[in-house]
TrEMBL record:
Pfam families: ECH_1
Gene Ontology MF term list: delta(3)-delta(2)-enoyl-CoA isomerase activity
PANTHER family in the record: ENOYL-COA HYDRATASE-RELATED, ENOYL-COA HYDRATASE_ISOMERASE FAMILY PROTEIN
Top-level lineage group: Eukaryota
GO cellular component: peroxisome
Family: Belongs to the enoyl-CoA hydratase/isomerase family.
InterPro entries given in the database record: ClpP/crotonase-like_dom_sf, Enoyl-CoA_hyd/isom_CS, Enoyl-CoA_hydra/iso
Protein name (database record): ClpP/crotonase
């Protein structure tokens, strides 16, 4: 299924290669930027479709005493006909021209990241290339991450081009990275991490060969393995408890203060 629905220029595609595996492929240009349209017309409806189809399939399977048919997993991957980008993050020119930076909070940070952190079936980010900024956050909101062994970095590079973090981004890395030195490297130094470094720090679960096809195959195998944990219906409910503080921080996210505003306030007090 191409997304947006009925669009002549699909920016994503939702596949269901097996009854228990869904694959959301991001297809916005060369580097899969997360624009307002991608967030609201591709990712959000895809999550709605997957959740609805899984819940219907699960209920039917359980009524038929078919536990194997009641599981499921969602894979998010960059465009499959390339081996260069998972996602290069927000379309920054679009972000900075949006009044109050409402694009970040209303269309990405709150609904999508919150949704992934509490999604009712396992979610796997199949990182088939560079994973930057908001794309990195998207990946970290998934339950598992599989990354290509090829030339690919993950980086929160906002510090290098003067873009402050929304509180929700900070909350994600405090939750998933934990180590203060690692968090400093990610958020304050904008370090570029290789796949092997990400694996060492536990930020990805597997590093695999074979480019996009290899990453998707490994993610599919992982999804089939962990998807059974969704059978009982408590996967998402447990996650809401595990990530309670993070979800609470995200719910309290407020309008981001920009550097020039911080300067004005600070100078007024000095």
């Amino acid at each position: 299924m191409d997304l947006p629905i009925n669009s002549s220029n699909p920016l994503g595609a939702l596949h269901r290669p097996t009854p228990n595996i869904w694959v959301l492929e991001l297809k916005n240009g060369v580097d899969n930027r997360l624009t307002g349209v991608v967030c609201t017309k591709v990712i959000t409806p895809a999550l709605d479709i997957v959740e609805k189809e899984w819940r219907i399939a699960r209920n039917k399977a359980l009524k038929a005493d078919d536990k194997a048919g009641a599981g499921g997993a969602l894979i998010i991957v960059g465009k499959l006909d390339q081996n260069k980008f998972f996602s290069n993050g927000f379309d920054y020119p679009e972000v900075i021209k949006t009044p109050g930076l409402g694009f970040i909070y209303n269309n990405f940070t709150m609904p999508i990241m919150t949704r992934l952190l509490s999604f009712p079936i396992p979610t796997i980010a199949a990182l088939n290339g560079h994973t930057f900024a908001a794309g990195f956050c998207l990946a970290m909101c998934c339950d598992y991450r599989v990354m290509t062994s090829g030339k690919a970095w993950a980086c929160m590079n906002e510090v290098h081009f003067g873009a402050p973090f929304p509180q929700s981004f900070s909350a994600i890395f405090q939750e998933k990275a934990r180590d203060p030195v690692l968090i400093r490297s990610i958020c304050l130094e904008g370090k570029k991490f290789t796949p092997q470094e990400l694996l060492k720090h536990g930020l990805v679960d597997q590093v695999v060969d074979g480019g996009s096809n290899g990453v998707l195959e490994a993610a599919t195998q992982l999804g089939q393995k962990v998807g059974v944990n969704a059978v009982s219906g408590v996967w998402g409910l447990i996650k809401k408890g595990v990530y309670f503080k993070t979800l609470q921080m995200m719910a309290e996210d407020t309008r981001q203060v920009m550097p020039f505003e911080e300067d004005a306030v600070a100078l007024a007090k000095l």
